[in-house]
User: Fold this.
Amino acid sequence: QVQLTESGGGLVQAGDSLGLVCVASGRTFTHYFMGWFRQAPGKEREFVASISDNGASTYYAGSVKGRFTISRDNAKNTVYLQMNSLKPEDTAVYYCAAMELMSSHYNYWGQGTQVTVSS
Assistant:
């Protein structure tokens, strides 16, 4: 069992930057592939970015590639999402998720943190 707690959301203006943090507690953090997802009002939850257990591989949605950066610090059981050049369409609740290495889906989810980008 893993517990995930996100923080760092807020209200910013278009073009600003914001950093999200997700701290994991419970089982060994290095046993998990980590991801960030988001859900805007009236829309389905969508993939934003993910990172392998050792941090060597990262993946991004096309809409955020080049603007967002995912990283992790296994010594701190923490995964980060640095968001630059934010746009109003990035407004959403952002969720951190963990996938067990032998799983095909994300097993654990955080409670979410709101990001609002004003134009």
